[in-house]
Amino acid sequence: MLASMDEPEHFEILEDHAVFRPTGQLSVELVVQLIATAIAFARERGIRKLLVDTSNLTGFEPPNIVKRYFFVHELARSSAGVVHVAFVVRSEFLDRQKLGRTIATKFGFTTDVFKTEGEALVWLRRLN
To answer: Deepest in the core among 67, 91, 114, 127, taking most CB within 10 A?
Structure first.
């Protein structure tokens, strides 16, 4: 029997979704690891909708397309096609061409990126 995961710090379970709001000055690799853990935690708990607000993170530049590909692949594995993730990011991290979303779709991962929590919640609530 697998041990149950501890709830990640800055993770909140609400009525129809969960929210993960990591904070601090971190490397982009650590951020991806934290988000992958939060997604896996949500999946383990049967939570299908997760809002990840990264707007309070610092310490790294927006990843290039190659890094985005690998990061999205890792997050998709954590989701296992179960958890839909809406990201809230600072404007300099927005990928206007939505390449990350396109990559995610190839991996069976439902995700999108938004500038505001309100926009992210509207998108999440439209999903089944």
So the answer is: 114
Q: Which amino acid is located at 30 in the chain? A: L
- Could you state, in order of their start, the residue ranges of all structural domains in the chain? 11-126
Burial class (CB in 10 A: 0-12, 13-18, 19+), 29: middle
Any residues with CB less than 8 A from the CB of 95 and at least 6 apart, and which?
68, 101, 113
Per-position b or e across 34-52, b if 16+ CB within 10 A of its CB: bbbbbbbbbbeeebbbbbb
Tokens for 47? Answer: 């939570």
CA distances from 32 to 66, 71, 126 (A): 14, 6, 25
- What kind of fold does domain 11-126 have according to CATH? Transcription Regulator spoIIAA (3.30.750)
The residue assigned the tokens 């296992």 is 80
